Automatic annotation (TrEMBL):
It comes from the Bacteria. Pfam families: Amino_oxidase (PF01593). Residues 10-430 form the Amine oxidase domain. It comes from Paenibacillus taihuensis. One of its GO terms (molecular function) is oxidoreductase activity. This is Protoporphyrinogen oxidase. InterPro entries: Amino_oxidase, FAD/NAD-bd_sf, Zeta_carotene_desat/Oxidored.
């Protein structure tokens, strides 16, 4: 069987790595850009390793990446973020984030009664009897919960920071998604970790595995321009060639799949996913020539909905000797839900808020900048997991293709969904092969 995988991000690499282990399958992984990794792309500048996005892994011991480590024999090291150094800023007050019981007791965001209640709610989620999964959205749950405003705000803020979305979007996250996500996270022995050396450590190993099989090739800078079905084969057209395949896996955002299949007989089946919106954030990376301050490893500004991670406090491999790498992220409202009319003014205001957060906690940073990169609108997830959006299934009825990526159905959020859906798509292709053979 000959398989084409379109998209060389985390999902496409994962699917190809699993399929490359099967002697009965050969294939091509197509990637339109000059490098693999998609939005988990990593590059070096002036001795700093910059990730195109955050590379924190939530609940590593219960994460799909741990399954892949075992099944694909990957090797990587990781380090846990020190949760005692995760802070929230609200009003003028700075307080430990209530990530566990110790921090919860210390936090000034909640009163003693609210702390007791919040612990009760978290404990109830862990005990898996929690009611939140029976509600359509977090907003519906909070409306009926009778919780104090501070508890509601804290719930919203937790969801903002794990899903990279604004509070108004946090209220639209389905109750079942929140229940599954936090159940997993609170049971984890390793809640927040960084893969040391960034995503490149994972993507490079997946690439090696694919190439070592001898049955797969990787076509960089070769985007797919068209696809047609003829005499039992799928013909994929690029600028360089036209080639036939038995199976096709789409490992790219649904928005791009729609473009590619426009005008084909398959287009109508994607209609339910056409109006999906993506999660976008502003990313503000600064590499500093020396450590200007290290008051904490993460500070979240609840007033302006943005945060700064001292990435190098956890992952020392990303900076030159003595340097510091800070990553600021601002949650953005999209045009439709946020009622933002003047986009430029809105983004300028976010930039100012971000810089003043740096000024407050990392004084002197402006004079120490060695590397700076600002992405005003970086896509974190191709489909925002909120009511009104629909994640793409790994297979759609009446369509012959397979789908994977962070906008598809799968375990976890963000990168984990890319890994888990890529793994699932590979399993479905294999099942298909077995059925064909029999």
């Amino acid at each position: 069987m000959k398989v084409a995988i379109i998209g060389g991000g985390l999902a496409g690499l994962t699917a190809a790595a699993y399929l490359s282990e099967q002697p009965g399958i050969r294939g091509v992984l197509f990637e339109r850009s000059p490098q693999l990794g998609g939005r988990a792309f990593t590059y070096e500048k002036a001795g700093f390793t910059l990730n195109y996005g955050a590379h924190a892994i939530y609940g590593l011991d219960r994460h799909t990446l741990s399954d892949m480590e075992r099944e694909l024999k990957l090797t990587f090291s990781s380090k846990q973020v020190d949760k005692r150094k995760v802070m929230y800023e609200k009003g003028e007050q700075l307080t430990p984030a209530p990530l566990d019981f110790v921090n919860l007791v210390k936090t000034g965001i909640l009163t003693m009664m609210q702390k007791v209640r919040f612990v009760g709610e978290i404990t109830a989620i862990i005990a898996n009897i929690h009611q939140i999964k029976h509600y359509d959205t977090l907003g519906d749950y909070l409306a009926e919960s009778g919780a104090a405003e501070d508890v509601k705000e804290l719930w919203e803020h937790l969801v903002c920071s794990n899903f990279f979305i604004t509070p108004e979007d946090a209220r639209r996250v389905p109750g079942s998604v929140i229940s599954d996500y936090y159940h997993n996270l609170f049971l984890s022995q390793r809640p927040v970790n960084y893969v040391l050396g960034s995503w490149a450590v994972i993507t490079n190993q997946l690439k090696e595995k694919i190439e070592q099989s001898g049955r797969w090739s990787i076509a960089l800078q070769e985007g797919i321009d068209g696809i047609r079905y003829e005499q039992g084969k799928y013909w994929l057209k690029t600028k360089a060639r036209e080639e036939e395949f038995d199976r096709v896996v789409f490992a790219m955002p649904v928005q791009q799949v729609m473009k590619l299949l426009r005008g084909t007989p398959w287009e109508p089946f994607l209609a339910p996913y056409e109006h999906n919106t993506a999660t976008e954030v502003m990313v503000y990376d600064i590499g500093l020539s020396h450590v200007v301050a290290r008051p904490f490893s993460y500070i979240s500004d609840m007033n302006h909905k943005l945060f700064i991670s001292d990435v190098s406090a956890t992952d020392h491999t990303l900076v030159p000797e003595g340097g510091q790498l800070l990553q600021g992220i601002a949650y953005l409202s999209d045009e439709s839900s946020g009622g933002v009319t003047d986009r430029k003014a809105y983004l300028d205001e976010k930039t100012e808020q971000m810089e003043s957060l740096f000024d407050r906690h990392y004084p002197g940073w402006r004079d120490a900048v060695a590397v700076k990169r600002v992405s005003k609108k970086a896509m974190v997830q191709s489909v925002k997991n909120v009511a009104g959006n629909r994640l793409l299934p790994n297979r759609i009825e009446s369509m012959p293709f397979f789908f994977c990526g962070d906008g598809c159905e799968g375990k976890g959020e963000l990168a984990e969904r890319a890994f888990s859906s890529g793994r699932k798509a590979a399993a479905l292709v294999l099942a298909d092969l077995k059925n064909t053979v029999h």
